[in-house]
Amino acid sequence: MPGFDLTPPDPAQRATLEAGLDEAERRVLLAHGTEAPFCGVFLDNKREGVYACRLCGLPLFRSGAKFDSGTGWPSFFAPYAPDHIRYVRDTSHGMVRTEEVCARCGSHLGHVFPDGPPPTHERHCINSVSLAFVDAGEPLPDPLGRGDNQAAP
């Protein structure tokens, strides 16, 4: 698997990317919010392809790792690549959880829990508005113009 440039966007690139977000995307990606359960556009998506970061386009999850967790959010048992997700201790709302953010741009994705299926037993519970979907065989998004947009597996 070819590597992806994980260098964060510079301030001008970031401003351009953020300008393209709607209110719900801004609330989740930038302000660490969450969407309501059972309403995300990717909850019932069964197509083959790759889920990428809505802000910077970094591939985050493959459709083959998606499963129905019954929680109301798209769930995955493994990331696209381990270094594409960064984990942050989250003590908000009176709980201790592990927040997941995009390793390249730092956008909030959701949380990971240790109650998923084999082989990882992880449940990456992700907000649909944090994701962009690319059908198998289509080029990955490359909003930063870095040339890492080969076809999605």
From TrEMBL:
InterPro entries: Met_Sox_Rdtase_MsrB, Met_Sox_Rdtase_MsrB_dom, Mss4-like_sf. Its EC number is 1.8.4.12. PROSITE patterns: MSRB. One of its GO terms (molecular function) is peptide-methionine (R)-S-oxide reductase activity. Keywords: Oxidoreductase. Residues 14-136 form the MsrB domain. SUPFAM superfamilies: Mss4-like. Pfam families: SelR. It catalyses: L-methionyl-[protein] + [thioredoxin]-disulfide + H2O = L-methionyl-(R)-S-oxide-[protein] + [thioredoxin]-dithiol. It is an enzyme of class 1 (oxidoreductase). The keyword Oxidoreductase applies. It comes from the Bacteria. Belongs to the MsrB Met sulfoxide reductase family. This is peptide-methionine (R)-S-oxide reductase. The lineage of its organism: Bacteria, Pseudomonadati, Pseudomonadota, Gammaproteobacteria, Lysobacterales.
